[in-house]
Amino acid sequence: MTEFETLLDYRRTVAQLYHDVRTSTLSPEATWARFRAGRDALFAAHPQSALGPAARARFGGLRYFPYDPALRLTARVEPAEPETTVVALQADGPTRLRRCGRVRLTIAGQAVTLALFWVEGYGGGLFLPFRDATAGANTYGGGRYLLDTIKGADLGHAGDALVLDFNYAYNPSCAYDERWHCPLAPAENRLPVPVAAGEMAYSS
Q1: Are 204 and 55 spatial neighbours (Cβ–Cβ below 8 Å)?
Q2: Among 120, 162, 185, 200, which residue has the least CB neighbours within 10 Å?
Q3: How many CB atoms lie within 10 A of CB 72?
Q4: Which one, of 125, 145, 163, 151, lies nearest residue 199 by Cα?
Q5: Where are the domains of the chain?
Q6: 79-113: string of b/e by CB count within 10 Å (b at 16+)?
Q7: From start to end of 25-143, where are the E strands?
Q8: What order do you get walking across the sheet with 72-75 strand by strand?
Q9: What angle do CA 169, 24, 29 make, to 5 degrees?
Q10: Which residues neighbour 100 within 8 Å (Cβ) at sequence distance 6 or greater?
Q11: pTM
């Protein structure tokens, strides 16, 4: 297959993993375990893995915090003042992120707010990056992603509320290999509280 076909296959597989999460009849923790196994398989063997060939050869699985049902949250999206941030990415050029809403949550007993962004361009997509108090210690220093619907990372809705399950928080590709360049969490999405759920810092 061509490089573009393998990328298409990778995107299809990721989208299917998230579809299976949204439609699962298993327990939340069993659904999460199945998702983790599928993601590990992609990292270990797929030609479009974020890991380089040498790292794939010694890959033993991504590290996660234990599943925490208290960090599976839902929230209605509130209006937010639209503002566009331009992020310069080495491979992709300028990427425009337009603030399109906010969600209010309670994490570790503290009320917090996160901005949602729409990736501007053909088709577009919802994007939610964040950085929390575990960054640089237990998790990647640049922060993590929770939603990126262009890439298939979509946890769906519960009624009219957005599902925000931090057990599915994951590292951007730049956490695994320096050849990647990724948009990171803006200042307004840097949380003062620890989010001890989801993927931990990558260790080769």
Answers
A1: yes
A2: 120
A3: 18
A4: 145
A5: 62-189
A6: ebeeeeeebeeeeeeebebebbbbbebebeeeebe
A7: 72-75, 84-89, 93-107, 110-119, 125-130
A8: 72-75, 161-165, 157-158
A9: 50
A10: 80, 82, 116, 117, 118, 126
A11: 0.95
Supply angle C-alpha 88, 92, 93, rounded to 5.
40
The answer to whether residues 134 and 194 touch, using CB atoms and an 8 Å cutoff, is yes
Amino acid code (one letter) for 192: P
User: Quick one: which H or E segment has residue 39?
Assistant: helix 28-45
Single out the residue of 57, 66, 89 nearest to residue 173, CA to CA: 89
Do β-strands 144-148 and 84-89 pair in parallel, antiparallel, or remain unpaired? Answer: unpaired
Q: Mind listing the pLDDT tens digit for each residue in 63-78?
A: 999 999 999 999 999 9
The answer to whether 142 and 182 have CB atoms below 8 angstroms apart is yes
Round to whole Å and give the CA distance between 195 and 65: 10
Integer angstrom CA distances of residue 91 from 29, 94, 180: 37, 9, 8
* pLDDT single digits (tens) 155-166: 999 999 999 999
Please report the pLDDT score of residue 98 as a whole number: 94
